[in-house]
Amino acid sequence: MQKNLRWAILSCAGCTLMLFVTGGLAFNVFSAAQPYILAQNGFTNTQTSLITTVRSAAYLLGTFAIGRYYRKLGYRTGCALAAVLAGASFVLFAAAKSLMAYYFAGAVAGVSYALGSMVPASILMRRWLRAHCGLAIGICSAGTGLATVLFSPLFTAIAESGGVDRAFLWTAAFCAAAAAAVFFLIRSDPAALGLEPWGKAVPESAQARALHALHPSRLRWALLLLAVLLVSGIGSAGFTHLMTLYMSEGMDAMQAAAAFSLCGLALMAGKCVCGALCDKLGSYRANYLLFGSFILGCALCVLAPLKSAALMLASSVFLGFGASLNTVGVSIWAADLSTPERYEKTLRLFQGAYGLGGIVLSFLPGAIADLAGGYAPSYIVFTVMLLYSLFMLQSTYRLARR
Predict the structure, then answer these.
(1) Inter-residue contact 236 to 349 (CB < 8 Å)
(2) Which residues, other chains included, contact 329 with Cβ-Cβ below 8 Å and sequence gap of 6+?
(3) In the prediction, which pLDDT does 207 show?
(4) What is the pTM of this model?
(5) Residue pLDDT, tens place only, 70-110
(6) CATH classification at residue 125
(7) Which residue from 111, 117, 102 is spatially nearest to 49, judged by alpha carbons?
(8) In total, how many domains does the chain have?
(9) Are 168 and 94 in contact (CB under 8 A)?
(10) How many CB atoms are closer than 10 A to CB 229?
(11) pLDDT (tens digit, 9 = 90+) per residue, 209-251?
(12) HEC sequence for the chain
């Protein structure tokens, strides 16, 4: 195997493991803990949902420090430290005895994900690979889904048998081991090893040239950022409240955990497929397929009061598959809608919209549940928002075609 390909694969594995911890455990698997935090502390639905709001606020603030952070530490050390912070957040969750302590732990988790997000993973993959970059980004991002598949039922089983605090501590120990592995796997730049990026550069398509030459008006750019914000916010809030949705409707805890795990499996598959589809078909066509799955998943969640196990599983699959847009889609849209020279700046801007979306929408399911008596109505709102986002993105691609 060529040396540059070997290091590209190892760096891809390191980024996947980093996102497994910072995004998969600190963000997705934490959803399995929310029902236990709600039950054992006597918090309201809104107060509990605000943990994720604080986490998203910390993520947003952390995105402003990404450039300086990696210039100071480098990608190898910086990615490993992000995983360490995720482990620290779980220790803080285990020690929390008050609502403010939970909020502080959530803030640490948010900073961890900001620093160990798709921004460093996307930049590293574009440094190491000239071809199949979308697929590599999708594989890295699939780490978050893999964590949901493997850890959601495990976390729930430990919480059921020994309490949620014990589950937090076991998760923190895994994060510490993963951080060491991330440090040994990732290399920051092929040039530092005397290597070139792997693969032959793919000729830029006519649509890609048109997109790079496109200069959207300020209004359209603002509406595009709103679309990214909504997709990201729904991907976060809709996904993280899925288990709470079905448990609040009376579904068995282990059944709901299994459905959430299936959602994570679909998310993991969707992220790999998303990158591959964008490489093969182009983002315009891939958007229709992935948005269609996302919208259908949210629509099926509205039927949660029917207490149907089949509908629960179907909604989990479609929602998880479509939610791959939440990470892979955002990275690819940033590449499509900017020149190569402005990619890092545009990606950070889109990640800022991603973080703001988590803040704006994270409290919405809990607030609607307090007002309407259930979480299902919030998924009606999500469905409408996704239709808007699809229209805005596709209209921009069509504008480039013309």
Answers:
(1) no
(2) 231, 274, 287, 290
(3) 57
(4) 0.75
(5) 989 999 999 999 999 999 999 999 998 888 999 999 999 99
(6) 1.20.1250.20
(7) 102
(8) 1
(9) yes
(10) 23
(11) 556 556 677 888 889 899 999 998 888 788 778 888 888 888 8
(12) CCHHHHHHHHHHHHHHHHHHHHHHHHHHHHHHHHHHHHHHHCCCHHHHHHHHHHHHHHHHHHHCCHHHHHHHHHHHHHHHHHHHHHHHHHHHHHHCCCHHHHHHHHHHHHHHHHHCCHHHHHHHHHHHECCCHHHHHHHHHHHHHHHHHHHHHHHHHHHHHHCHHHHHHHHHHHHHHHHHHHHHHCCCCHHHHCCCCECCCCCCCHHHHHHHHCCCCHHHHHHHHHHHHHHHHHHHHHHHCHHHHHHHCCCCHHHHHHHHHHHHHHHHHHHHHHHHHHHHHCHHHHHHHHHHHHHHHHHHHCCHHHCCHHHHHHHHHHHHHHHHHHCHHHHHHHHHCCCHHHHHHHHHHHHHHHHHHHHHHHCHHHHHHHHHCCCHHHHHHHHHHHHHHHHHHHHHHHHHHC
Which residues pair with residue 198 across a beta bridge?
Answer: 129
Average pLDDT for 16-28: 89
The range of the structural domain enclosing residue 231 comes to: 3-401
Tell me the two tokens of residue 91: 């220790």
* pLDDT surpasses 90 at 183: yes
pLDDT digits (tens, 9 = 90+) for 314-338: 999 999 899 888 878 888 888 888 7
Tens-digit pLDDT profile for residues 256-309: 888 877 887 888 788 888 878 877 788 888 899 999 999 999 999 999 888 888
Backbone angles phi, psi at 198, to 5 degrees: -80, 145
Polymer length in residues for the chain: 402
338 Rama class: left (phi>0) / alpha (psi -120 to 50) / beta: beta
The answer to whether 111 touches 85, Cβ cutoff 8 Å, is yes
C-beta neighbour count of 378 within 10 angstroms: 25
Q: Token digits for 94? A: 């285990």
Tokens 């691609």 sit at which residue?
397
Distances (CA, A) of 106 to 50, 94, 320, 321: 9, 12, 23, 26
Which candidate, 127, 364, 309, places its Cα nearest to that of 300?
309
